[in-house]
Structures are given as structure tokens and as C-alpha cells.
Design brief:
The N terminus is likely disordered. This protein starts with a helix and ends with a helix. The chain is mainly α and about 200 residues long. The longest helix is centred in the first third of the chain and has 23 residues.
């Protein structure tokens, strides 16, 4: 019982410290599962710790608050989408709309990457704290990087409008599942959406 107090203060034992990378990864996996199943508001640090098989002090030790755990968890889950700026720069500017649209919807179409994205979006829609974390991630790591590739007037606004178009369609198709959009052929959707995205990014 003598080690109970230090654990409550968030200091891991020597054994836990030696296993830090594996423990940290296990907590992140558990956090993504909890946020996906329960959403941000109903997920607790204690619940994450229980799912990871660790003391809740370890969650605080590695990540801090629940908000910080959420941010770390969605950074990993959102990582595939962060390659979107590469799709912008990889080719001529007059084809950027199709490349970006195809790239983003490709992530949503893949079940392995769709599930964590659904968890992120649902949490952000239902909780302002989660939404603020999501906005920071989108603004700092995605939209600004895309804007830098454009080298056009109002580049950040252009990138935000393009993102709004893509996120809106993704919400209706994959989250709310409005028909006939939810079951429409992906190529048909890309053919209609890509010119709009192109316009946001490059038209005067």
C-alpha cells in the first residue's frame, strides 16, 4: 500500500517507466476506442485507464487532461488526412481540385481510416472542447499547409472553403448517411464535387 500515494500523483513505477512506449501506445489505443464508442463527453480518464489496463495516474502522467488525451488520440487517427497537402502540390494547379477530393474521399471510403474519423467528427459535433481541439488540428496541420502550397491571394480562406465543401459532403455521406448521397457511386460524387473544390482553390 506504500506506493499508492505516488501513483495518485501521476508518477509511474520503475517497471512502468521501462515499458513506457508500449504503455503509452496501449493508452492511445484504448482512448481511441473509448472516444469512438462513447464520444467525448461520456469518456473519462478512468474509463480509458480501465480499457488500457493501467492506473488512471498513468494516463495523466503521459497525456495530462482528458482534452490532451483526446488531442493525442485524434492526431494519430487523423494522420492519413494530414498528407492532403502533398496531393495539392503533386501535380499541376488546374487539377488540384480532383486530386484533393479523390484523396479525402479515399480516406473516408477505407473502413480502417473511416472509423477513427467518425469518432473524431461525432465528438467534435457534440462537444465544444472536442470541437476546439479538432479546429486546432485542422487549422495548424492541414489548412495552413494547403494554403502555403497555393501561393494565391486569400489562400487560407480558399483552403477553408475547399475543406468546408469536402467536410460537408463527407458528413452527409458517411456520418448522417443521407440518401441518395450515402449510396451514390464515388466517382460520380468526385466528378461533381471536384470542380467546386477547384473553384474555391484557384478561381479569381
Amino acid at each position: 500500500m506504500t506506493d499508492a500515494a505516488p501513483r495518485r500523483r501521476g508518477r509511474p513505477s520503475r517497471t512502468e517507466t521501462e515499458a513506457a512506449p508500449a504503455t503509452r501506445d496501449r493508452i492511445l489505443d484504448a482512448a481511441r476506442g473509448e472516444f469512438s464508442e462513447r464520444g467525448y463527453e461520456k469518456t473519462s480518464v478512468r474509463g480509458i485507464a480501465k480499457a488500457a489496463g493501467v492506473d488512471s495516474a498513468l494516463v495523466h502522467h503521459y497525456f495530462g487532461t482528458k482534452e490532451q488525451v483526446f488531442e493525442s488520440a485524434i492526431e494519430v487517427a487523423f494522420a492519413p488526412a494530414l498528407a492532403a497537402p502533398v496531393a495539392v502540390e503533386d501535380g499541376p494547379l488546374d487539377g488540384v481540385g480532383e486530386r484533393l477530393t479523390r484523396f479525402i474521399f479515399g480516406i473516408w471510403e477505407n473502413p480502417a481510416t473511416r472509423a477513427p474519423l467518425l469518432a473524431i467528427v461525432r465528438s467534435a459535433v457534440n462537444n465544444e472542447t472536442a470541437a476546439a481541439v479538432f479546429r486546432r488540428l485542422i487549422a495548424a496541420q492541414l489548412l495552413r499547409r494547403i494554403a502555403q502550397q497555393l501561393d494565391l491571394p486569400d489562400a487560407e480562406l480558399r483552403a477553408e472553403l475547399a475543406a468546408a465543401q469536402l467536410v460537408g459532403v463527407a458528413m452527409l455521406r458517411y456520418v448522417i448517411r443521407v440518401e441518395p448521397l450515402a449510396s451514390a457511386d464515388l466517382e460520380a460524387i468526385i466528378a461533381r464535387v471536384a470542380p467546386v473544390v477547384q473553384g474555391h482553390l484557384t478561381l479569381p
